[in-house]
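Collaborator request, handled under Task 6.
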Amino acid sequence: MHWELPAEEGSPPREWLNFPTALLYGYQVYTTFRWPIEARWLHRHMERLESDARAIGLDWRCDRENLTRQLEACFQQEMPVMRLTVVADADAYGDFFKAPSPSGRLLLSTRTLPAGRELLRLKSIRYQRPLPTIKLGAMAPLILTRRKAMAGGFDDVLLVSPQGHLCEASTANIFFIREGGLYTPDPERDGCLPGITRLQVLEAAETLGIPIQTKSPISVWALRRMDGAFLTNAVQGIEPVRCVDQIAFPWSDSAMELLKKLVTALSLRDKP
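Structure tokens returned to the collaborator:
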């Protein structure tokens, strides 16, 4: 049984019948995006959510067309950021271990669009998320590491794997620009999330004829050879990076021009 704690001291607690037990244990996967969104990319978010749910043992299937209609009905212009979370629909902790896999329960939350950020400063840290290719809901370690970095004057963290490979930021993928080409970590090899906006950038780069390098890992030592870098996620799109630690990117004219082409390409795709 779950209870909703009252706002005023001394008031008796009320039973909260619809509270998902799985939220207490972080047994959840999620995806976040900004509305409006092109249908095929929305479907990619849904596909990944279903795949991630299956990967952590939840029995959840997505009716994409029906879910799209529901999202359209829930859309509020003042809160365009949507998060879909699938949690285990279980009544008690012990139910998580019973066979067959628990069914999934879908939750929707919305929020305002965060303010844009320009030329970010990143702090590199040795850390890799558990199950890094899955968008898990347990975010406390990343929140704490990012808060610590921000207290030191940085905007975000750049995660470095135990092998010394650059991975991703706290909630974004990362790309580097060098000599007219793109370099980005590989999810399976380097342990980063296969982000939807990352896929959009890769597709746009291929269309624009921009060389893409994902075959070789990127080390911290390689940062000094890069002309620029940017983060990508489905809410804030493309965000350029000023520096990692004390290594500042020169951002040559050609690197800036490449970035502008990608921003334009993604803005044209960001239509319903």
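The cover message to the collaborator said: "The longest strand covers residues 81-88. The chain has a mean pLDDT of 91. Please let us know whether this matches your experimental observations."
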